Amino acid sequence: MEHKFPYDWTLKDAHFTKDKGKVFSCFACGGGSTMGYKLAGFDVLGYNEIDPRMGKIYDDNHHPKYAYVEDIRTFKDRNDLPAELYNLDVLDGSPPCSSFSSSGRRDKDWGKHKVFKEGQVAQVLDTLFFDFIDVAKKLQPKVVIAENVKGLTTGSAKEYVKRIYASFDEAGYTCQHFLVDASTMGVPQKRIRVFFLCLRKDLVPLVDECGGLFGGTPHVDMQFNEKEILFSEISDHLGREITAPRTLECWKEHIHGEINLANASERLYGKRNYFDYILIQEDKVCPTLTIGDHNNQLLDAVPRYVSVGERIRASSFPSDFKATEHEIGFCTGMCVPPVMLAQVASRVYEHWLSKIQ
User: Fold this and answer.
1) Is domain 22-228+338-356 given the CATH code 3.40.50.150 in the classification?
2) Mean per-residue pLDDT for 195-213?
3) In terms of DSSP bridges, do strands 192-200 and 66-68 run parallel, antiparallel, or are they unpaired?
4) Known catalytic residue: 29?
5) Residues 145-202: pLDDT tens digits?
6) How open is the CA angle 276-281-284, to the nearest 5 degrees?
7) Taking CA 291 as the corner, what is the angle to CA 280 and CA 237, rounded to the nearest 5 degrees?
8) Secondary-structure breakdown of the chain: helix, strand, coil percentages, each rounded to the nearest 5
9) Where are the domains of the chain?
10) Which of the following is catalytic: 97, 198, 250, 331?
């Protein structure tokens, strides 16, 4: 078997064993991580998400036992949470990352109250990670798994990583982080993400063969070497045709192997425009798909935009995921690919939770 988990699958036909432990998900969006935990055999009890639109998508696809559609700053101060959410096996979270993304404004937005795509109330996105850690401190799950963009580990953002480690330590957890590429994990897309894996300190002696004598976080093998899946294996060429005259002219002028239309624009018009019109090559792994129902992502082989089916398969979402075309574009751009999370959750179970349980 080349791949541990299928990238082309359906919710209706999937068999979720629910025997690996209980999970609660924060910043759940449409449930990308939830589907990953389910594929890995976990029982996801519910979620917290600020956006009512995403909450409805989550409800329609997952039918959770507990649903909290509200700001995490409100959720963390609740005194009426059910006992089942305390001492969970895994607390999951993907704090909104636009202020750390290398494609965004980064430090220009740090510390500012803004209304971002992730919700309808003003928030300081770069502090939400610490609100999530407050939830961990309150609920005291055995393990915390947090996912974020690669940009969190580069440049001046590294100072946030130091603060994250210190905050997890104060909350009672040892912490380590890993950069991993989804394309090495059985996902048909190059998507590099950072995962913070945190273990409650009192459980370290149960997991570490040395009994936690060295004070570090017990090892988790996060090397993945599954065979890459080329775009040709998932393409259907059913996306909408390129009709805008200048865009079409640039597409006709592009040379196979170019990553966008900037060079074609320069050859035609003497200006390097259209650099954000990304070309997806059939003989390569699909590049990172960002938010949007097409978001200027073009096929190299035919004059069409990426299709809904191609986006779903590239993101390892189930083909029967319930959402509109625009919502699917948003969810696949925002969420961690389910197969990527399934791989991470399986390693955490193998190295930590199986020994604790």
Assistant:
1) yes
2) 83
3) unpaired
4) no
5) 999 988 888 777 778 899 999 999 999 999 999 999 999 999 999 999 999 999 999 9
6) 120
7) 35
8) 35, 15, 45
9) 22-228+338-356, 231-332
10) 97
